[in-house]
Amino acid sequence: MRTEEILAAIGTGLWSWDSSSGTVAFDAEAARLVGLPAEATVRSGEEVRHRIHPADWNEIDGIVNFAIAEGTLAEARMRILDEDGEVVRTVRTRSKPVPLDTPGRHTYVLMGILQEVAPPPDSAAAQTPLTGDWRRSREAFLLDAGRALAEAGSTEEVLRVAGSLSMPGFSPDGLAVFGVSGERLTVIGHHGHNVGDEKPFTDMLLETDYPAAEVVRTGQAIYLASPEEYRRRFPATWPLASGFGRRSWAFLPLISSGHTMGAWMAGFRHTVAFSPDERSVLNTVARMLAQALTRAGTAETERELSLGLQRAMRPSLGPGVPGLSVAARYIPTGGGLQVGGDWYDMIPLPNGRIALVIGDVQGHDVRAAGLMGQLRIALRAYASEGHRPDAVLSRASRFLSGLTESYDLTDGEDRSDATRFATCLYAEADPEAGTLDVARAGHPDPVVISVDGTAVIRQTAGGLPLGVEKDADYPTTRVVLGPGETIMLCTDGLIETGGHDMATGWTRLRPVLEKPVDDLEELAEALVQAVHGPGSHYTTGPLVDRREDDIAVLVLRREGARARRAPSRRSAMTVAQAEPERIAVARRQLRELLHDWADTEQVDSAELMVSEMATNVLVHTDGDALLVAEVTGEPGERRLRVEVADASDELPHTRRPGEMASSGRGLMLMEMLADAWGVDPRGEGKSIWFELYESAEPAELAAGGS
């Protein structure tokens, strides 16, 4: 006898389910057991699925996936349905899933036997030794559901997660979430319905004889196991539900902080008895859903409030200024309401110029945002009165100091909690001349980007942060922008976010600033992405404290031709008799100018010569020194020329100092280190200069340039 005949004699059939083609092959006995004609046949998986109880089908799906993962047999019981959906028998299957080698797809063939067995004592899906008891599956499902709902950040995401939940043994095919607005029921969202199906249930009075309305009124869940029960209990609204073709419904209250905020409806196309275990799962999901919706609503309210605060406190740049292009960004990263103390502003001045302001109030809380708003208004008022940059900052410092002194303390606070300071950079820009008069209160220095793309930190004089002293002084530094040059102002968040200090943060930003871009909006966005984009994760800084800070960026460019034949970069500054410390600033600025110079020893030599030349002016004259450094030519063939001018007519001369002499070596150093040097008399005073060549002879000199 054949194997099939032997198995049929003992009431056992063979079947094979191919997931790649979605077909099922039966021998005659297996076909009879599932309610098909008793003959060997191949049917579609969808046709076979309709003959298996939906609750058992969900169980089988989990068993097969478990067996594939563990390499074990899949064993389960199934209730077989007839054409009318009535249970005709219960069968047991023992099958072996065999994975198929299908590129890019997870497919298998399920091969095994079917046997008729006695029906289980209740209507629930039978227990299986492979999956453990149903309660363990339920707990695993609830853990996954809780995790997914907790991660949802908006109401839309919560509804999407709720619609994708596959409950163990009795997954609904339609969901709806109802809210309450006054005395009316509203539809917050739905899943498994067509667009427009929710209209009859929208704006429904809570007095309506509808299950969701009654759940909201009473706070008690309603379970309707059959259409007959629905029609008997809610005859007025049964016509609204009858068209969806469902056979069981569960309506559960959404309760948050003891208040019923709405109702959740789960509809089933198959009959559900709503056993105690099933009700327990639905109640737990309803509680998690209510909490997730509450969190999402709070987060959305905070985001809306944040956006409103940002729009109110951060101005737009307004219409363009002739001769200048401006772009800005503000990124709140302090958490909470997503508002902080960083800001920027652009203020029209009475003299036809404009003022650029950027600042950072200490802290990342609501009080920092409030102080920022008040300080910004004060700065606009002082600027509109026509004060110079130093006077504007002096008045702003006095204003902020007064605000913090008058702050009302709450219980547990001391006066140090109320003290706040702010850093600020205020620049008065003349679009026609390309000059910016900069006053700085403890704020990072600006960065100037030359036409050839070189980014250099422009050292400027500064004073204490605003609010530290009432009568602080803020010296002014003039920065000159040539046609096509750009200046970047930012708060320390752009530099230090990600565990960076000022040095490593500047190293991270320099390549972004030096990348050629024609659009300032593109440059501003690239700076933000360097800190918060995907690439920022690979450039974390060395500091342990990596708390993020708010970011404000303001970029300004003087309009003009950005391409020319001889690329150059230039820096100029004054070294006053009363400020000998400016010599160190001049050395740093020169090194910034030569950051990509080929020979580092030449850079060291240039620093030494600049120091000697500036010191000579301060020691041997009574006036200030004007230092101008300029780099011209293409990389690899560039020329550095540095001039230090003063008002004295006394020309320097070479001396032969002894071993113990403390001076007199300046010209000797230039003669040894410089490729060319000289002293040029002027109408008033003189200029001492030197040149260094990146190659043996720069291309411009070989071509006859000077």
From TrEMBL:
Source species of the chain: [Kitasatospora] papulosa
Residue intervals of the PAS domain: 1-71
Lineage of origin: Bacteria, Bacillati, Actinomycetota, Actinomycetes, Kitasatosporales
Keywords of this entry: Hydrolase
Pfam families associated with the record: GAF_2, HATPase_c_2, SpoIIE
Top-level lineage group: Bacteria
Protein name: SpoIIE family protein phosphatase
